[in-house]
Amino acid sequence: MHVPDGFFDAPTSVVTGVVAAAAVGVSLRKARNELDDRTAPLVGLVAAFVFAAQMLNFPVVSGTSGHLMGGAIAAVLVGPWTGVLCVSTVLLVQGLLFADGGITALGTNVVLMALTTVVVGWALFRALQVVLPKKTAMVPVCAAVGAFVSVPVASLVFVALYAVGGTADISIGGLATAMLGVHTLIGIGEAAITFLAVGSILAVRPDLVYGARRVLEQRELVIKSSTTDSTTEVAA
C-alpha cells in the first residue's frame, strides 16, 4: 500500500502530512508513559521486525502481492503510541533510502499504515480483551483479529482519500472493490504473522508484551509449599 509521489493531489498530500506530523508529535509525548525498562529494549526490535517484514512480499491473487503493515503487532507489543512511532520510522527509512513510497506521500503512508492500522488494531484488541476471558492465551487471538481488520480498513481509508484527491480517472466503486478484496486476503496473512509473533514472545517473556499487562495483573499467582501439599492463591 506504499503510495508513490503524484498519486494524490497537493492539497490532499499536505493535509495528510499535517495529520501525520500531529500524530507523530502526540505519540512522542504519550510514548513516555508506555516505555519502561522492559519495553524500551523491545522498541528497536519491533521496528526492525516490521521493516524486514514489509520488505518481504507474499503473493495474493491475480499477480498482486502484499506485505505486513505492522501497526497492530507494534501496538500490542510496545503500546499504541510507541507503535505509531515504530511504523512511522520504518516508513521514513523506506521512503528515503529505498524509494518505497514517495517523499511527498510520506504523510499519506503514515496515515494509512501507521496511524490507521494502529488505531483500528489496538481499539479492536482492547475491545476483545474486555469481552473475552482474561487469559494470556487470548492475547495473540485478540491481536490477530485486530491485525486482520486493520488492513482492509486502511484500504478503505485509501479509497476515501483517493475519492477526495486522486489524480487519475478511476471508478471509485471499482477501486473500493479491488482494494477491499485484495487487502482482506492480505489481512489474513497479517493476522497469521501477528498471532505467531505475539504468541512466541508471550510463551517466553509475557511481561514484555504491552497488551498482556492487564491480563497479567489480574492473573492469580499460585504458590505451592515445598513442605506441604497445600496450595495458596494470592492475587497478583
Structural class: mainly alpha
Q: What is the CATH architecture annotation? A: Orthogonal Bundle
User: Averaged pLDDT, please?
Assistant: 87
Spatial strand sequence of the major β-sheet: 1-2
Could you describe the largest sheet, including whether it forms a barrel? 2 strands, antiparallel
Q: How much of the polypeptide forms β-strand, as a percent range?
A: 5-15%
Radius of gyration: 20 Å
Number of domains: 1
Terminal residue distance: 43 Å
| Low-confidence sequence ranges | 228-236
Record keyword descriptors for this entry.
Arp2/3 complex 21 kDa subunit ARPC3; 236 residues; single chain; two-stranded antiparallel sheet
What does it look like?
The structure is a single chain. This protein has eight helices and four strands. With 236 residues, the protein is mainly alpha-helical. The protein has a single domain, classed as Orthogonal Bundle (Arp2/3 complex 21 kDa subunit ARPC3), CATH 1.10.1760. The strands form two sheets. Strands 1-2 form a two-stranded antiparallel ribbon. A hairpin with a 6-residue loop joins β3 (220-224) and β4 (231-235). α6 runs antiparallel to α7 (172-204). The chain is globular. The termini are far apart.
Q: Short description, anyone?
A:
This protein is 66% helix and 6% strand.
Q: Helices and strands in order, then pairings?
A:
Layout: H1 10-30, H2 40-55, E1 58-59, E2 65-66, H3 71-78, H4 80-97, H5 106-131, H6 138-165, H7 172-204, H8 213-218, E3 220-224, E4 231-235
Antiparallel strand pairs: 1-2, 3-4
Helix pairs in contact: 1-4, 1-5, 2-4, 3-4, 3-5, 3-6, 4-5, 5-6, 6-7
